[in-house]
């Protein structure tokens, strides 16, 4: 007959084994439940669907970069190809891609050290914005294309109100960086005589 101590040891061993099994199962379920980033050569629809997930939102800016670059071009060139995705998912993806795109622009701009390089970058952003706005206006005149630029307009692709709300939702350091970039962009556009669809005063 086994002693009480033997029964106690057996109970502890069995309990520990069950607990370890539950942890392993739970961990496996967690990993299985996570959304795996699609390869960059996947269909644009799959990339946009991924951009609407919390997994994309929680990824780092460097991880988002290649998806932002692919989707900005794909959505602008042919937004109709994404219409089969539910509108709520499209809007969420648009906001998340637009926010990440703006973060990447600000990051690159602030990383430039010389005034000449910053001026060149601002000119590139303004020229790109003008080009896209003209292209979207032409599409609307022809009866096609969305009523607004894909990812919205200035300069992250979000509307002015969405841009304002997105900036307010960032921490103070991030918000200041974004506002500085937008103000500098407005200043440069004003120097070139180009109206900016952004409710931000020039930086000087």
Provide a descriptive summary of the structure in words.
By secondary structure, the protein is an all-alpha fold. The protein has one domain (44-191). The chain is built from 8 helices and no strands. It is globular and about 45 Å long. The termini are far apart.
Uncertain spans, ≥5 residues at pLDDT below 50?
A: 10-33, 147-158
Number of helices: 8
The description of the largest β-sheet is: none
Give the H and E element order: HHHHHHHH
Q: Estimate percent helicity.
A: 55-70%
Q: Output the radius of gyration.
A: 24 Å
Number of distinct beta strands = 0
What's the overall geometry?
A: globular
Short description:
The chain contains eight helices and no strands. With about 200 residues, it is an all-alpha fold.
Features:
204 residues, mainly alpha, 69% helix, 0% strand
Topology:
Layout: H1 4-33, H2 44-51, H3 54-58, H4 61-77, H5 87-111, H6 115-141, H7 160-168, H8 172-191
Helix pairs in contact: 2-4, 2-5, 4-5, 6-8
């Amino acid at each position: 007959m086994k002693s009480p101590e033997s029964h106690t040891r057996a109970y502890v061993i069995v309990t520990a084994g069950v607990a370890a099994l539950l942890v392993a199962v739970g961990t496996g379920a967690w990993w299985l439940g996570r959304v795996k980033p699609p390869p960059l050569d996947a269909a644009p629809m799959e990339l946009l669907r991924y951009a609407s997930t919390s997994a994309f939102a929680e990824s780092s800016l460097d991880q988002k970069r290649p998806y932002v670059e692919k989707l900005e071009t794909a959505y602008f060139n042919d937004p109709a190809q994404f219409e089969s995705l539910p509108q709520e998912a499209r809007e969420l993806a648009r906001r998340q891609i637009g926010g990440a795109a703006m973060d990447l622009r600000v990051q690159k701009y602030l990383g430039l050290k010389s005034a000449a390089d910053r001026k060149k970058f601002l000119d590139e952003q303004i020229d790109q914005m003008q080009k896209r706005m003209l292209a979207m206006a032409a599409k609307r005149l022809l009866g096609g294309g969305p009523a607004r630029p894909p990812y919205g307009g200035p300069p992250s692709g979000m509307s002015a109100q969405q841009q304002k709300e997105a900036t307010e939702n960032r921490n103070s350091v991030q918000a200041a960086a974004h506002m500085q970039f937008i103000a500098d962009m407005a200043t440069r556009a004003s120097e070139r005589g180009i109206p900016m669809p952004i409710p931000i005063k020039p930086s000087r």
